[in-house]
């Protein structure tokens, strides 16, 4: 099924994917073993479960899709792992536990669980824990329902590890992880008259260190940093990040391509990364006037915007990601291409996630899109790009150079064996 | 020389529109292509899958684009007054399915006043092909976005099912495809002009842009296919399986 979200946990040991059918698949990194040095640190399927089912809202006569929009891992406190998964309307907290031992030697039941004939029991024994094949059990611990009228586009766990937020097109709610029947509305941009609606919330995230700060992005390309200490309802932003429009590039599509599809804080907490249709931008929290860095993802599409509007591709929401040291940023594009930008060297690379171009353990060959002028042998021309093959979801391991790239219904995991440490 | 059917009020030089060099021969076709973009946007706004809520972000962005075009056309003076009766029959038929949809939503909204009919603004309508669409412009917006509010107050499961069947019927009859039947390759020239890159090499009506053509036609047919599944689903609910 089509993968709709990808997320590493905080150690990078686990990788969760959600798909359009409401399923979650968790991969686990195999520990490096001396016996098979080539398979060191590869990801294998750890658990699969059905997170959300399709529902029907009888009051509005509308289907609620089971597609998983986002997965966020909770920080681990004990042997169990927990994650939040959400579709358009309902967020669920899942607990993942391992069982690798089972008790044997009951007094009242036999090995199959049938009650023993008590007359045959002559002595008491203490049940012993014997090893068994690893069993991964997943259970829903909380269901956070009925908090949203509109479609949930983001969830973010707070650094306080007690609360989290969920954002839909017009509102953001704050939940406590232990309380399912109540949530607090912290942002509401719904106008009194819906006909006046011109802007929606597109993404939202808590600051990684300051539990009172969060950011949300809009369809008009602005970012708002809010401080929950200022007011219960954070309708007034603390900071507004907006880049003035470039008058030379103005067109009917300017607003659409400025709509921010994803926002991510850097691990340091000092910067924010945003993705709009043609660029990724790095913002310094201390400067609201404009981003400090702008990288062109596929500027050759600028002259094709009308066609992309017609076939709806202009509304595609690409995600973006930081590497663990905040030195490299990554985002997806079309034709199963994804792009990486090194902030220090200012070099960038285009790679492809496809079966043909990635044999296991083969080095990925950089790709190039030619835009007229000299054309090299393996270049792809803009007109032969496949716009149905889009890489919307990517994730970067928190500590190592391992990336997960979702290409429609295939998941690719790439590792940089040579440079496995962050620079 | 001039695009057919388009009356020019005066030989106007578009001042800094879309970065077109003033006096460019693209000026008359610019208006026609802007019109095409407006038509396309209105069609996009009205095509909504009735069993799954339409994407609000997409609807808002399209509506903002329509508003921009309307504002520019008003400034240009090309926004013509046109009586609804003068609208062509054929386009009316095509768009009637969604108009019915929007009308029934409005009727049920009860106290909600009919959008902008008596605003003091004359029924400004850009062109014959979109006469009913423009009238219904406010209502699809409000019906799309107020879907939540108005339907909440409505309740009435039976009524909603009627709506579903209406749409499914009209969509299944291929009206969706008819809406796209008029898309001709002149749309693709919009790229060069409307994204302000007039000087860009015209990658003619050729090869790669066919990819966009096929991409355009696939959404309607897939929505027709999924409609049959939705009809099944709706019937399942009725018989309570």
UniProtKB/TrEMBL annotation, chain A:
Keywords linked to the UniProt accession: Repeat, WD repeat
MF terms (GO), sorted A to Z: protein phosphatase regulator activity
SMART domains (UniProt xref): WD40
Gene Ontology cellular component annotations, sorted alphabetically: protein phosphatase type 2A complex
Listed Gene3D superfamilies: YVTN repeat-like/Quinoprotein amine dehydrogenase
Residues of the signal peptide: none
Family note: Belongs to the phosphatase 2A regulatory subunit B family.
UniProt name for this protein: Serine/threonine-protein phosphatase 2A 55 kDa regulatory subunit B
From TrEMBL, chain B:
One Pfam family recorded for the sequence: SERTA
Span of domain SERTA: 30-77
Compositional bias per record (Low complexity), positions renumbered to this chain: 213-223
Single GO cellular component term: nucleoplasm
Region (Disordered) residue spans: 1-25, 200-227
InterPro entries membership: E2F-SERTA_domain_protein (IPR052262), SERTA_dom (IPR009263)
Protein name: Cell division cycle associated 4
Naturally occurring in which organism (per UniProt): Neovison vison (American mink)
């Amino acid at each position: 099924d089509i993968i709709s979200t990808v997320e590493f946990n905080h150690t990078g040991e686990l990788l969760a994917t959600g798909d359009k059918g409401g399923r979650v698949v968790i991969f686990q990194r195999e520990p490096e073993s001396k016996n098979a040095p080539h398979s060191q640190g590869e990801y294998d399927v750890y658990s699969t479960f059905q997170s959300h089912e399709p529902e029907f809202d009888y009051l509005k006569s509308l289907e609620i899709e089971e597609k998983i929009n986002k997965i966020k891992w909770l920080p681990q406190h004990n042997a169990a792992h927990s994650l939040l998964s959400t579709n358009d309307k309902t967020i669920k907290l899942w607990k993942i536990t391992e069982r690798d031992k089972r008790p044997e030697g009951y007094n009242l039941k036999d090995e199959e669980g049938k009650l023993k004939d008590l007359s045959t029991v002559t002595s008491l024994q203490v049940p012993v824990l014997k090893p068994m094949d690893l069993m991964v059990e997943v259970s829903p611990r909380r269901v956070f329902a009925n908090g949203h009228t509109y479609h949930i586009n983001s969830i973010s766990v707070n650094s306080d590890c007690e609360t989290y937020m969920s954002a839909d097109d017009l509102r953001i709610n704050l939940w406590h992880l232990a309380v399912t029947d109540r949530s607090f509305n912290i942002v509401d941009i719904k106008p009194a008259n819906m006909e006046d609606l011109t802007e929606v919330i597109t993404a939202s995230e808590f600051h990684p260190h300051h539990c009172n700060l969060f950011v949300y992005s809009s369809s008009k390309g602005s970012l708002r940093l809010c401080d929950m200490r200022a007011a219960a309802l954070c309708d007034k932003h603390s900071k507004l990040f907006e880049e003035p429009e470039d008058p030379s590039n103005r067109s009917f599509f300017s607003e659409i391509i400025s709509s921010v599809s994803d926002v991510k804080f850097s691990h340091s907490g000092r910067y924010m990364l945003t993705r709009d249709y043609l660029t990724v931008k790095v913002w310094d929290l201390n400067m609201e006037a404009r981003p400090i860095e702008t990288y062109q993802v596929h500027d050759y599409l600028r002259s094709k915007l009308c066609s992309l509007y017609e076939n709806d591709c202009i509304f595609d929401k690409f995600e973006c990601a930081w590497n663990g040291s905040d030195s490299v940023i990554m985002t997806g594009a079309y034709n199963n291409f994804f792009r990486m930008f090194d902030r220090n060297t200012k070099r960038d690379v285009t790679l492809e996630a496809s079966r043909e171009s990635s044999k296991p353990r083969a080095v990925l060959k950089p790709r190039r899109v030619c835009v007229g002028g000299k054309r090299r042998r393996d270049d792809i021309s803009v007109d032969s790009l496949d716009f149905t093959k889009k890489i919307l979801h990517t994730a970067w391991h928190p500590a190592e150079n391992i990336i997960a790239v979702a290409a429609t219904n295939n998941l690719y995991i790439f590792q940089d064996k040579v440079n496995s440490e962050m620079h | 020389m001039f695009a057919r059917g388009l009356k020019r009020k005066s030989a106007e030089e578009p001042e800094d529109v879309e970065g077109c060099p003033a006096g460019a021969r693209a000026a008359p076709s610019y208006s026609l292509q802007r019109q095409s973009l407006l038509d396309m946007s209105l069609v996009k706004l009205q095509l909504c899958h009735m069993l799954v809520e339409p994407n609000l972000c997409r609807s808002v962005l399209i509506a903002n684009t329509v508003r921009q075009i309307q504002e520019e056309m008003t400034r240009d003076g090309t926004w013509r007054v046109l009586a609804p009766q003068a609208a062509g029959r054929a386009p009316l038929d095509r768009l009637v399915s969604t108009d019915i949809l929007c009308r029934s939503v409005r009727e049920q909204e009860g106290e909600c006043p009919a959008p902008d009919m008596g605003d003091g603004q004359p029924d400004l309508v850009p062109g014959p092909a979109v006469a009913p669409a423009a009238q219904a412009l406010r209502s699809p917006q409000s019906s799309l976005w107020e879907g939540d509010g108005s339907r909440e107050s409505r309740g009435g499961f039976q009524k909603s099912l009627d709506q579903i069947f209406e749409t499914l019927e009209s969509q299944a009859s291929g009206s969706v495809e008819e809406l796209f039947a008029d898309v001709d390759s002149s749309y693709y020239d919009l790229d060069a002009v409307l994204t302000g890159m007039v000087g860009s090499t015209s990658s003619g009506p050729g090869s790669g842009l066919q990819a966009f053509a096929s991409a355009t036609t696939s959404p309607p047919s897939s929505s027709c296919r999924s409609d049959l599944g939705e009809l099944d689903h709706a019937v399942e609910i009725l018989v309570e399986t």
